[in-house]
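Could someone model nicotinamide-adenine-dinucleotide with this protein?
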Amino acid sequence: AKRNVLITGCSSGIGLALAVKMAKDEQKRFKVYATMRNLAKKEALEEAAGRRLGKTLEIKQLDVCDEQSIKTCVNSIPDRRIDVLVSNAGMGLIGPIECQTIDEMKTVMDTNFFGLVRLLKEILPDMKRRKSGHIVIISSVMGIQGILFNDVYAASKFAVEGFCESLAIQALKFKLQLSLIEPGPVITEFERKVFEDGMKMDLSAADEETAEMFTNIYLKNYKQIFQSLGQSAEDVAEHTVKIILAENPPFRHQTNTLYTPMTTLKYADPNGDLPIDIFYKMVFHHDKIFSASLNFIKLLRWRSRKSFDLGKPSQ
Ligand code: NAD
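Reply:
Sure, complex below.
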């Protein structure tokens, strides 16, 4: 039998790529319920799904910030059976906290963290009763490590990770699986929106040094970081499908091997100073080392693409 998969935030990015990839599975192992907050934005997904639309893929409305919309959506699925839940909907926020309102911050927490909680309050009891189900959460490397000017976004993803670590223990008792997918930078709408909002930000509430740091260091390097380290949404979708199909899916999975040296620092020093120190040096003291390492990464990418194109491993 097909596995029913419900994915949130499918109007763009990782959600769209994942929904289409699973709907087009050659072995037809999935029935995808691709959900989005605003159905007026369904055109891109419809187009990408092509002939799978109405067959292995159905589009439904679901706003992770609205309990009723979650209930209505789940009730519309035959027997309310969801075998795989992919909690993907999310939003970013960058900049100095002095320039952000508490309401803006609450919206990020409400979407990224309480969005997941609302989904599970509706879906977890059914999974427990059936003693089967896989909960897959698109978290971030920022769920394990903070980054300059991403304070509230990182906090929202840390909240997700802490919540899931606690829940995973209970889930094991009910034979449920839980997996956190942790991408590094991914080139999607998210990145574009976050950057544009950063560029438009009113920095008058910040002191000169902070405003300067945000504009001339953070925003200046932003595009370069995404260009050098960024993955495509399709790439993250491919990793996610592998985790969904794995016999023993891991609790955590990082999708970007170029980024893993950074997250490893977290576990290398129990005092927690090492990653902070390295990030500090990269950002404020060794601008040259920073660009040199980005160039090195670009070279690695170019080499791996080249060997991939040739269909043989690199020498
Ligand atoms: P995206 O902006 O293309 O996709 C996010 C989707 O979530 C959008 O379609 C948006 O409409 C939807 N959404 C927002 N609020 C919603 C709500 N209340 N209800 C339902 N849907 C809602 O960006 P993306 O990069 O594909 O992001 C997907 C996930 O990946 C997010 O959780 C994000 O935090 C995570 N992520 C992204 C990156 C990155 O660099 N792009 C890196 C790591 C993790």
